[in-house]
Amino acid sequence: MTTDRALARLIRSSAERTAAEETEVCDLCAAPVAEEHAHLYDTGQDEVRCACGPCSVLFAEAGAGAGQYRLVPRRRVRLPKVDTAMLGVPVGLVFFVPRADGAVTAQGPSPAGTMRWEVDAAAWQELARTCPRIATVEPEVEALLVNTVHGLDHHWIVPIDDCYRMVAVVRREWRGLSGGGRIWPAVERFFEDLTERS
User: Fold this and answer.
1) What InterPro entries would the database entry show (predicted)?
2) Residue 188: DSSP 8-state
């Protein structure tokens, strides 16, 4: 009987630890965060961090140029077809991130994370002239997300955390050398979810 009680206690303790480990917390103050929560972009580490309500309000009030952390906006805007060929990136699933210094990077998902290229800043400015909404992309915290794979035509202005979610989908679903049969249906579901959330 003692062994049964000890085993039950061990199982309960393990379950409690697992639940505690799965609870997301604010990366600034360690308070628990809801499943849907705000994110901050860490300019020093080039990473997105989870933020609780009070921390997100603090950084929203601080403004766009306030130090190391910037609040990631929630705007999602579907654009008409945009001719991104002038940007010189031969990838059909990619996101373009303007930087505060005027540089622009293109990032594409891969099974190992993201591939990154520098984009000609003059070409980005020319694209913004042909599609003025692109000029409204907030540097470092928003991106132009493009999916033209398999004849699709998705062009979005999205928060940078959506781009990292898309990269995570690709990494999770990729199989073998070519990606396997699960990757593209998962990417399509990601874009369907974007439509629902916009």
Assistant:
1) DUF5947
2) H
User: pLDDT tens-digit profile of 62-86?
Assistant: 555 557 888 999 999 999 999 998 9
Buried b (16+ CB within 10 A) or exposed e, 28-46: beeeebeeebbbbbbeeee
* Spatial distance between the Cα atoms of 39 and 1, rounded to a whole number of angstroms: 49
pLDDT at 3 over 80: no
Which pair of tokens denotes residue 116?
């990154």
Find where tokens 């766009």 sit: 64
Q: How confident is the model at residue 90 (pLDDT cuts 50, 70, 90)?
A: confident
* Distance of alpha carbon 134 from alpha carbon 157, whole angstroms: 8
| Phi-psi category of residue 176: left, alpha or beta, with phi > 0 → left and psi -120 to 50 → alpha | left
